[in-house]
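Backbone-to-sequence.
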């Protein structure tokens, strides 16, 4: 009930990380453009795939250039934190700084009914942003068409807004290059500043190859899922480049912050031993630690014009992305029920909680009851066998992770945000949103 909100704020106020003064508001008033990199793992960045003749192929040259730029705050130790809700859990994390649920997809189970204090609602209330999501697949997938109303998303352009042909379609929807091309007609009509998200699909399991878009040779492990993953990621890289070209041509680029992120793994743990040799690892020595390390995904805040960016060592996860973004836009996050903290704050909490309760910190990787050294991957020991003070240290890390997850779960499961309206939040009504015949 209402008093449960007190517990939430005990955690939230304790956990809050104040913004770095030099970064707060540096992107104020700019458009926000999220580019969702489907199933994209961090190891693809800077990866060079060697073909049978020993020739090397850079898989994602464009994303690499963005990742390394001084005009990007890029995180090399950022992890996805999704559960069974996969893509939609990543959206829950990004839009609300809340985790998906322990079971099933939260978008499906509580998305239609709960009250949210989403990115969209905050930015609309505080800075008059207009919001839109673009996705070349059916709107009901993951219950988006309904959940987005609860999130206060003004426009949702789903498959009904795109011209599908046999040639421009793959299993999960429109091919990424065509998707971006066809999105522009709608993007152009949005009042600025806008908050937008482009959800790509081509780089989705099982990574079907599309003859006309094969531009690098596949890998040769013999597992088609792994082999083709590099090829479809390369296509996604080209699609993102083309979209950036458009943004630059129209001048939108300079007035935007572009956030690129991977939603979750593309290669499952069951396949990682086959992937291992491509990462220079011996499959015989592959451990759960290695699986955990592979849950890294790109998290990049590209802010054209800044010069103090580059690759950051900070550990963090998707739950941290909303506070980071809002601080860049000059919105303080102190009074929101966020589970994450600003990645660019010196007080940022670097413990990364996975949805299953495992934790990665810069020092320890805790998987079940086994503790690894995050740097070396060596097993430190089973929790129960550790010296007393270290055991306490690890237990405290685990407890905090569990509190973070249970706090998030209590918000979603008991719909707690209906009891709390942050100052300055406007009134939102689901019934005011309709995604049919928009822009006509
Ligand atoms: C479908 C797409 C895929 O619309 O977003 O979702 P996923 O299977 O990756 O969770
Ligand atoms: Mn996905």
């Amino acid at each position: 009930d209402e008093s449960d909100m007190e517990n939430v704020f005990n955690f939230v106020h304790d956990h809050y990380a104040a913004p770095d003064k030099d970064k707060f508001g540096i992107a104020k008033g700019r458009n926000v453009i999220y580019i969702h990199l489907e199933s994209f793992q961090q190891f693809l960045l800077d990866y060079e795939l060697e073909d049978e003749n020993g020739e090397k192929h850079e898989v994602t040259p464009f994303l690499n250039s963005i990742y390394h730029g001084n005009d990007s705050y890029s995180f090399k130790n950022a992890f996805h934190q999704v559960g069974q809700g996969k893509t939609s859990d990543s959206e829950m994390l990004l839009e609300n700084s809340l985790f998906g649920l322990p079971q099933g997809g939260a978008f499906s189970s509580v998305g239609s009914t709960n009250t949210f204090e989403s990115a969209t609602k905050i930015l609309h209330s505080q800075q008059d942003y207009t919001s839109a999501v673009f996705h070349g697949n059916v709107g009901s997938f993951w219950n988006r068409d309904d959940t987005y109303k609860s999130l206060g998303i003004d426009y949702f352009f789903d498959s009904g807004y795109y011209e599908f042909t046999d040639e421009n379609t793959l299993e999960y929807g429109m091919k990424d290059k065509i998707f971006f091309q066809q999105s522009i007609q709608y993007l152009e009509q949005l009042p600025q500043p806008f908050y937008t998200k482009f959800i790509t699909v081509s780089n989705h399991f099982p990574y079907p190859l599309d003859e006309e878009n094969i531009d690098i040779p596949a890998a040769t492990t013999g597992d088609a899922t792994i082999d083709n993953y590099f090829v479809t990621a390369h296509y996604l890289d080209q699609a993102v480049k083309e979209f950036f070209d458009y943004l630059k041509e129209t001048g939108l680029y300079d007035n935007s912050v572009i956030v690129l992120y991977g939603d979750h793994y593309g290669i499952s743990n069951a396949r990682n031993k086959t992937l291992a040799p491509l990462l220079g690892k011996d499959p015989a020595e592959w451990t759960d630690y290695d699986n955990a390390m592979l849950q890294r995904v790109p998290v990049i805040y590209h802010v054209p014009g800044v010069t103090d960016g580059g690759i950051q060592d900070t550990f963090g996860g998707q739950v941290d992305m909303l506070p980071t973004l809002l601080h860049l836009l000059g919105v303080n996050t102190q009074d929101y029920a966020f589970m994450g903290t600003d990645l660019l704050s010196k007080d940022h909490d670097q413990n990364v909680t996975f949805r299953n309760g495992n934790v990665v910190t810069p020092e320890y990787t805790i998987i079940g009851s086994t503790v690894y050294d995050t740097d070396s991957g060596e097993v430190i020991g089973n929790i129960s066998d550790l010296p007393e003070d270290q055991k306490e240290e690890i237990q405290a890390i685990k407890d905090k992770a569990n509190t973070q997850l249970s706090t998030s779960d209590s918000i979603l499961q008991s719909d707690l945000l209906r009891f709390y309206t942050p100052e300055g939040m406007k009134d939102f009504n689901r019934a005011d949103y309709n995604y049919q015949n928009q822009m006509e």
